[in-house]
């Protein structure tokens, strides 16, 4: 087999490889907005509230469900995918012409990246829903969450390290080049690859489903071509996806900025928050995908267990902040600082497991709808998830400025306890994975 044939057979025509790379590239703008830009702006003296209000520029992700039907029926997924990647390349190139002190320019840069990466997300999600059979949903969601977070790592710590050795203009020029190369590569992707095979496997799986899965299916729903109204218990899923990231994002976004105020350098923060924590989040997401692939593991148990771990980690962050504030510590090797960093790492790992399990839950419910509307439904649920973390993340900085960091973290702790209660009362059929 020639190198060209190997490249086409195992890279261009492999849905898993294609999905993995596209999700990785898609994660870069979020890492840029979540890690890279806030640290740059906070180092320039911006308040917590001003930094957190930039989260409102994630609004295009909230509106993703509105244009998902347009992407599905208007021009084909590949056309939208290539167009969005080219638009991302042009936006990054325009970003190379601005500078971090220009808040308007930075805001326009982030808005453009969010708009076009949200369009890309709709196209890629539709591709995943079409080509992945039921028994590979765990694998697909692991690839999605893990490589999306790798993209976040590149957009956060990666760009921070790159900026230390180059310049703002060079950093964004290289980002534009990455998007342009990906757009060219995307023109060669066959978005219908293995579609018939995946569909055949789904049909075979339905015919050979075990009795346990049949009982689970009987409690489930009929295929719904239009909306979620026909899915029994869907309200609990909506409440869960709105709540489950709120407290977590408040803590993850604000504790690193607090440590920056207390003397950590941007390079140290990039290492702990951008590299170590993001790496642990990726590890947690990988573990989540592996554990959900086992036949004797309950999705509900995984979510409740690691949501509890997340709650404990934020409680430890509250303790660390209390000790640092009351003892006026500045030694980075003191117990409170070590506790803050260790709990931040634990939170990142737990959130990784929760993310994979939650996206598996969301995709599982979307697969109950007709194939023509699966991507729209998944985008709608994902938009609810974005709404929860976006609206609160944009307000968290204001809460910190008005009431203090410790009181804000008390609120984050309460918010992290609510998803556990919702999971405890959520209907069983929504949390039941089909098994072969």
From TrEMBL:
<keyword id="KW-0813">Transport</keyword>
<dbReference type="GO" id="GO:0016020">
    <property type="term" value="C:membrane"/>
</dbReference>
<feature type="transmembrane region" description="Helical">
    <location>
        <begin position="170"/>
        <end position="189"/>
    </location>
</feature>
<feature type="transmembrane region" description="Helical">
    <location>
        <begin position="145"/>
        <end position="164"/>
    </location>
</feature>
<feature type="transmembrane region" description="Helical">
    <location>
        <begin position="337"/>
        <end position="365"/>
    </location>
</feature>
<keyword id="KW-1133">Transmembrane helix</keyword>
<dbReference type="GO" id="GO:0022857">
    <property type="term" value="F:transmembrane transporter activity"/>
</dbReference>
<feature type="transmembrane region" description="Helical">
    <location>
        <begin position="308"/>
        <end position="325"/>
    </location>
</feature>
<keyword id="KW-0472">Membrane</keyword>
<dbReference type="InterPro" id="IPR011701">
    <property type="entry name" value="MFS"/>
</dbReference>
<feature type="transmembrane region" description="Helical">
    <location>
        <begin position="80"/>
        <end position="99"/>
    </location>
</feature>
<protein>
    <recommendedName>
        <fullName>Major facilitator superfamily domain containing 3</fullName>
    </recommendedName>
</protein>
<dbReference type="InterPro" id="IPR004752">
    <property type="entry name" value="AmpG_permease/AT-1"/>
</dbReference>
<feature type="transmembrane region" description="Helical">
    <location>
        <begin position="111"/>
        <end position="133"/>
    </location>
</feature>
<dbReference type="InterPro" id="IPR036259">
    <property type="entry name" value="MFS_trans_sf"/>
</dbReference>
<feature type="transmembrane region" description="Helical">
    <location>
        <begin position="411"/>
        <end position="433"/>
    </location>
</feature>
<dbReference type="Pfam" id="PF07690">
    <property type="entry name" value="MFS_1"/>
</dbReference>
<keyword id="KW-0812">Transmembrane</keyword>
